[in-house]
Description:
Two copies of one chain form a homodimer. Chain A has three domains: 4-50, Up-down Bundle (Transferase, Pyrimidine Nucleoside Phosphorylase, Chain A, domain 3); 78-153 and 192-324 and 434-438, Pyrimidine Nucleoside Phosphorylase, Chain A, domain 2, CATH 3.40.1030; 331-421, Pyrimidine nucleoside phosphorylase-like, C-terminal domain (Aldehyde Oxidoreductase, domain 3), CATH 3.90.1170.30. In chain A, strand 4, helix 10 (210-226) and strand 5 form a beta-alpha-beta unit. By secondary structure, chain A is of the alpha/beta class. The longest helix of chain A is centred in the middle third of the chain and has 17 residues, at 210-226. Chain A has 16 helices and 13 strands. Chain A is globular. Chains A and B meet through helix 1 and helix 3 of A and helix 1 and helix 3 of B.
Amino acid sequence: MYSAYEIIAKKRDGEELTQEEIKWFIQSLIDGKVADYQMSALLMAIYLNGFSTKETASLTDVMLYSGETLNFNVDHVVDKHSTGGIGDKTSFILAPIAAACGVRVPMIAGRGLGHTGGTVDKVEAIEGFNTSLTLKEFQNTLEKEGLVLIGQTGEIAPADKIIYGLRDVTATIESIPLITASIMSKKLAEGAQGIVMDIKVGNGAFMRNKSQAKKLARSIRNTGLRFGRNMMTVLSDMNQPLGNTVGNSLEIIESIETLKGNGPKDLTDLSLHLAGGMIHIAGLAKSHSAGIRQAKEALKSGKALEVFRDMIKRQGGNPKVVDDYSLLPQATHHHVVTAPRSGYIKKMQATEIGLHVVSLGGGRHKATDKIDFGVGLTFHKKVGDKIKEGDPLVTIHHNEDQKEDVLKISDSLIQQDIRFSPKKPSTLPSLIYETETSWCH
Amino acid sequence: MYSAYEIIAKKRDGEELTQEEIKWFIQSLIDGKVADYQMSALLMAIYLNGFSTKETASLTDVMLYSGETLNFNVDHVVDKHSTGGIGDKTSFILAPIAAACGVRVPMIAGRGLGHTGGTVDKVEAIEGFNTSLTLKEFQNTLEKEGLVLIGQTGEIAPADKIIYGLRDVTATIESIPLITASIMSKKLAEGAQGIVMDIKVGNGAFMRNKSQAKKLARSIRNTGLRFGRNMMTVLSDMNQPLGNTVGNSLEIIESIETLKGNGPKDLTDLSLHLAGGMIHIAGLAKSHSAGIRQAKEALKSGKALEVFRDMIKRQGGNPKVVDDYSLLPQATHHHVVTAPRSGYIKKMQATEIGLHVVSLGGGRHKATDKIDFGVGLTFHKKVGDKIKEGDPLVTIHHNEDQKEDVLKISDSLIQQDIRFSPKKPSTLPSLIYETETSWCH
């Protein structure tokens, strides 16, 4: 028999835990035989003393099998996951593109909490869109239609919810093995045969620096491989919002515009890069660049837009939103923030920008908060852009009773969140820092 | 305002916590605003990243003031504390000796749990001895009589009980700063002006090696000094039982015999060393050796024995036990374990010896277990002694229904717990490894 004390002490002393010890500990936590205060001591020991690839795989394994697991009866099933950023709406673009190219895309997405928004919240800006399918319906739809999007369910990796809840209040979130197990247990349970992982790096992301992000990428690839998945990890920039909009309806509109070929360059490029990766690791393109070429074609031909329209219809939403944005919730008022001086935009504070949208009601401080789909921010200029005093910088989409909030946000944007420079910045953040592919066979 | 998360994260990152942060965290734990799983994450971070002398003093301070604190209206108040060992009954000898020399000795002692016995359990072998005085009665008796012995009360440093309970199940016991704060918060709350700390080192002690024990000694002295106490730390051996007996009545009898001048050398020497230290740091002897000389005199003259007798009487026990040991609970049966071969005793496993007494009923596996005062072990030989095959080694004092236990213990003693050698061991453990004195002014 195992003892919680001995297992904690072993990790405390920097030794490697066996698969059986990890399995027993987590199973006992779920069964209530190991207390949460013992788990949090172990989490801190893991945070400080590390967890090997083998230990991480063992933890992922027991978390993965703590709930339902899906197994699709079709091939080319590839999912994409992002570690979360401001204005990140690539899912709505790359999923239809990849599906249009023959990839089967099973998306189980999250809701927003704190400074980042959630894919499920955004898609629910489309009235009637049903993200609460059963896992059976989810599987059937994927196998038949090749594209489906639902919200996270308690049936998938319930252990992650318990453990994440503890990490969140014990300062043990930012641990690469724990992040890996949390993400991968859910993604593996969801049955994808390949996974493209978009790891955001920068001041609006969970990973603030590249070296940490690279370590996370390696850890995620290694864990995916151990479970027989084809893996692609992409490190992409999150030092400013992705695309020009932040806010639920606004981001849906921007996604549709991108599917129509009118999207901003950064959002379009990253979506194509990730979609191309999905096509490639699904085995439908010989190289990543060949995958990207197919993705571009699906975008250009309008096929991806049609796939998106079909998904909306299938999941209970009104497909006419694609042509008539007035069908989406909209804020009643607009306030344009203008450039206080001429020069260049040098930098943005992406987390603060995300928090402004939360404060307008477009996101959540706590899980039970309601979302106002219409509010948000539109950026008319991005990092590196030349500006003249008085140029429109940001439009704040708000409601009538929010004039005070708007003044506060406006001040904060100009004085802190957007940094100006009289000269053109010599270096600008790249959009994509690194792409690594690992094949499981 | 402080946040539990930020404080845990700060210690996780190896930074020093402020006094205010530590105070807020522990106070919030007591008030139920910080959860036990957050405390255990912080405990593991302290265990692994350390705690400075200043942080340790801050933790001690908030734990100390979590309950009642005593302040005596008399001088020369010095207490002794031991980190716990097998057969450690020095309190019953050194307290009357020091009191006979003018030291005022306020003892708040513990009960046994696990392999070590407790002073309170031992003294309760004397029928009627009341260890449950109120703190007011405790203070009055100390001030009037100069010697009093009671059991730990929930009024003193209640935070320690909460924190110790968590450490005990999260593998965070063996942390020098946490041990320091636990011991010192109680000792400082108990109002002694000087403290002699007997830190046991060896296979029967909490501290298994000297370097750790030295660190603990330094940490305890430093913390005592910060609170204006005169401190003496003594590192003493715990690789075999102290004296010849282990078990409650047996140890009371051995203590009285020692007070009569008939005690075993190790027990007598250590008791005089510690009593001499108490006399010295109470300011009643110019040097430690002068203190030891006074202690010897108090022992030799019989004055210490009379002080012990008076204490028993005052606290409701029958003082006649001092002259008639049959008034103490005794085991009904005896089994003598003999030497399996001739040679020398090379080593003993003190923890296992302690656990045998627990298994006979002389100690506790869990806090609610009842104690059988009569059972125990008498050692006829100690480490380094020459033995002939068939010599009595150990007498097991037991009850009629314990014959199976006796066989098991007998086997274990001969085959594992006592190690033999054909030749005289070249090195024997010293009784006292180190003595350090620190004056607060």
